[in-house]
Specification:
By secondary structure, the protein is an alpha/beta fold. It is built from four helices and four strands, in the order βαβαβαβα. It has a single domain, classed as Rossmann fold. Strands 2-1-3-4 form a four-stranded parallel sheet.
């Protein structure tokens, strides 16, 4: 009996602390049977933003063990799809081996949100939900 080969997806952004982590979490949560998602940044942050972990936990996606990774960790790996979720990442996206599809979609960086903790959380939730909707359109359920 042959084993199903999962599609491999890499999501890139600048710091790999919010948007790309959210996209990786959503893809693995929703499509993990068929797709294996990874994320990285070209200037990785020191940690995944705590509000990213909080708002993803609210929807049943656990990112507590996630860590920001540098995109160079993945340079020698083949991917079916490479997604960039911010303009700076698109500009520096390296070439990965093999035939792959490139997709770009810019999302606001919730780290830039100002205001009270609740106002900032609202921005993280908005971006989380926007990414969820887009992922659902990209990988039709």
């Amino acid at each position: 009996m042959s084993e199903l080969v999962k599609q491999r997806v890499l999501i890139l952004c600048t710091g790999n602390s919010c948007r790309s982590q959210m996209a990786e979490g959503w893809i693995n949560h929703l499509y993990g049977e068929h797709i294996e998602a990874f994320s990285a940044g070209h200037i990785p942050a020191g940690a995944v933003h705590p509000m990213t972990i909080q708002v993803m936990r609210e929807v049943g996606v656990d990112l507590s063990g996630a860590r920001p990774k540098h995109m160079n960790e993945f340079l020698d790996q083949p991917f079916d799809t490479v997604i960039t979720v911010c303009d700076p990442a698109k500009q520096v996206c390296p070439v990965f081996p093999g035939k792959m599809q490139r997709i770009h979609r810019t999302f606001d960086d919730p780290v830039d949100a100002r205001g009270s903790d609740e106002e900032r959380l609202a921005e993280f939730r908005r971006v989380r939900d926007e990414i969820r909707e887009w992922v659902g359109e990209l990988f039709v359920e």
